[in-house]
Amino acid sequence: MKTNILTMSVIGMIALLGLGVQPSLASPEAGPYGEMRGHQPQHANHLRHLLKHQKELGLTEEQVKKLKTIELDFDRARIRLGAEIRVNELELQALVEGEEQADLSKLEAKVKQSELLEVALRMSAFKARNEALAVLTPEQRAKGKAAHEKPEPRQEKPEPRP
Question: Which of 20, 62, 101, 153 has its CA 20 to 30 A from that of 139?
């Protein structure tokens, strides 16, 4: 009975993981910096927003250079961790499908590894945000926060002609 409960728990955890990483992780167009099971590193999105509004914020060339370096470092980490997560999820899926009754200790280790990789990805986004904010002056931080909270103007679609 305990084995059935544990098996169902592991299967439930695997189902929650979705047995794979959303493809948006590798595609910035699908979601800024990707999403991991509903988590979207908004802090990394904030970094791109700062660079997009560098003139309005009055960023110096040196600040822009530092922010771009932070962005590049984060992108590297995001891509590496995303690949590791995908490989880990494939290995987890192979463990589940490989045998009629999978080794639960191996499954648990893979699930925990996935969680640690997800934490590392999210923490790299927080780290990038903190590093970016340290580059700005207090006035620039205030302007950046105000600009980030303000909705982007939407381009209106032309009305169809009759």
Answer: 153
Q: Give the other-Cβ count within 10 Å of 4's Cβ.
A: 8
Q: CB-based contacts of 118: which residues, under 8 Å, 6+ apart? A: 36, 37, 39, 85
Residue with tokens 């995303």: 82
- Asked if residue 88 lies in contact with residue 117, where contact means CB atoms within 8 angstroms, the answer is yes
Cβ 120 vs Cβ 81: under 8 Å? yes
Residues 6+ apart with CB under 8 A from 3: none
Which residue has tokens 């009629």? 100
Alpha-carbon distances of 113 from 5, 121, 155, 162, rounded to whole Å: 22, 12, 43, 58
77: closest CA among 118, 43, 121? 121
- Phi/psi at 121 (nearest 5 deg)? -65, -45
